[in-house]
């Protein structure tokens, strides 16, 4: 991912996907169990991508193109700490952050207890990030912190591989970029944001992003410095919550800025992304996005990260095929 949004861990791990063996056997689940908490998206044609003048040229948001999708189901919310804890308890799964022993935390969230565990002062080009020993989904800010009082907050410090493992255990999968954007748009045609074209309609914040002067002062006009509990803001037109801001969301697709620009069937009908690539796409922005440096809370915006990377502002939601 762009270092400003969330740096790559560069841990040297080999990229994996869900076709490789999982460290557990997914349980047999009923269809009712699998689809609980999901929203049905009818599919059909929609206009994907954007040509926003504020887009980052290296992100490959365009061209705007017509994409056709089959019907699918997608989680109404991102996966929460409570849900991820159930997965870990059932499988004994160890996340990449736990295996490697550290993860990235935003500097204003690093308290006195965590400061002795900071591995380096900053990330080049993004001095607001700290690599903290012991920062995991269980201890989001590092040693001495806990998610026990945040059961409905998004699980964070999860890599793409962790997200794919959870999805397989739940009988689901990660959404494709096209599915994610179609669902996030909520039926609006080429709107700039999930809810329309105005960032703060009727002076009410519609998502959890940064207000104030980044990265030193957040006025918290939306109510939050870090993550917000799921369903803190109104849903979009399809009933999805927090598809803008809060946490970045992993998608199934490998990253490319050019693959989708070709007018081929595989890029226009149920596209699944390029066949290879070292990074995966992430969508939606996070609580750290601000117009002065990273306005990727726009619905067409996109960025990427390596599959073993984890930060305090990355999470995920799952999708399901229509049976």
Molecular structure report:
The structure is a single chain. The protein is an alpha+beta fold. It has one domain (38-254, 272-321): paralog of FGE (formylglycine-generating enzyme), CATH 3.90.1580.10. The chain has 6 helices and 13 strands. It has a 4-stranded mixed beta sheet. A 3-stranded antiparallel beta sheet has the order 1-4-13, covered by helices on one side. It has a two-stranded antiparallel sheet with strand order 2-3. The radius of gyration is 18 Å and the shape is globular. The protein starts with 30 loop residues before the first helix and ends with a strand.
Short description:
The chain has 323 residues and is α+β, with helices and mostly antiparallel strands. It has helices at 31-35, 81-91, 96-100, 160-169, 177-185, 265-268, and strands spanning 38-41, 44-48, 65-69, 72-75, 102-106, 129-133, 212-213, 217-218, 248-254, 280-283, 302-305, 314-315, 319-321.
Query: Regions with pLDDT < 50 over 5+ consecutive residues?
Result: none
* Number of helical elements: 6
Q: What fold name goes in the CATH topology slot? A: paralog of FGE (formylglycine-generating enzyme)
- Topology pattern, helix = H, strand = E: HEEEEHHEEHHEEEHEEEE
Number of strands: 13
Strand order of the largest sheet: 11-10-9-12
Count of individual domains: 1
Distance between the termini: 34 Å
Q: Which CATH architecture?
A: Alpha-Beta Complex
Mean pLDDT: 94
Helix-and-strand structural type: alpha+beta
Which of globular, elongated, flat, extended, rod-shaped describes the shape?
globular
The profile of the biggest β sheet is:
4 strands, mixed
Under CATH, the homologous superfamily reads paralog of FGE (formylglycine-generating enzyme)
Alpha carbon gyration radius = 18 Å
